[in-house]
Amino acid sequence: MSRMGDVLAGFHAAWEFESDSVLIRYERGIRTPKLFQALGERRVPLDAIAGVTLTPGRRGTVVLRVEPRPGADPLMDAAAGQLKEGCDPYRLVLPADKETLAEYYADELRAQLTRSGVAEEFLVTAPEVPLQFKAYDGKASFDGKTVHFRWFWTGASSAKWKAGDQSFPVAELSGVEWRSPEVFEGHLRLLRRDFGDEQPAQADQDPAAVVFGLGYGPVHESLPFAAAVLEAVRKCGPVAAVPASAPRRDPADIAERIRHLGELHQAGLVTDEEFSLKKAELLAEL
């Protein structure tokens, strides 16, 4: 950048522009998204940025955003497009009166970008370990070398109890599948190098997965966890692509899940629209 150390402060974050990177510092406050608070700060090398946009925001704001290159950030690779707009760590929301200043920095950034396409390695550092969080059916922990799952008797399936608590060295993993807890059937699944397509299709039956639920596996805990594991896995070898679709399920399982979805709907935890949409998705798997 032309002036090192310049800072652009917005809502929930401040960006410091350096010669070879952008240092993003997230605020800590009750209105700041919990994911931002968990991340603290992130240094984004210019080589990790594919593009820059400046667009109108809501209620008298503008939004400066940098687009990370695919494969450059383990957090965004793990999220796989599932983050809500307000939790996007690459968006800086600013008052409209800072639009001219934001446009200046956007132009300065664009002039410095020389790389594009898929990055061959992660360029943005994953959250530091050790990390842990509580899922609905167990506790997940990661020390940088091994992922541990310890099952809860109140939530784990009989298949998981039969398998017992699990430990997975990252050298035995090929990837991570994260499904947001903000949708039905959220989970974190470890993909194993020696299993291929043989892993159970249902996360609640897979000893290499923990399932989320209301209040369990929140984004600000489970996503940084998934990113840290993904970064460690990549250091051991190529990362596997997340399967695009799962095999068809047993009709009895579909019926049970629709029943459970109906209970959530009656309890007011799922809206009419969400109930109809998910029910249709489940029926389509028969």
TrEMBL record:
Which stretch is the leader sequence?
none
Q: Output the Pfam families linked to this UniProt entry.
A: DUF4429, SHOCT
Question: Which InterPro entries does the record match to this protein?
Answer: DUF4429, SHOCT
Which stretches make up the SHOCT domain? 256-283
Give all residue intervals belonging to the DUF4429 domain: 15-109, 140-229
Stated name of the protein: Tat pathway signal sequence domain protein
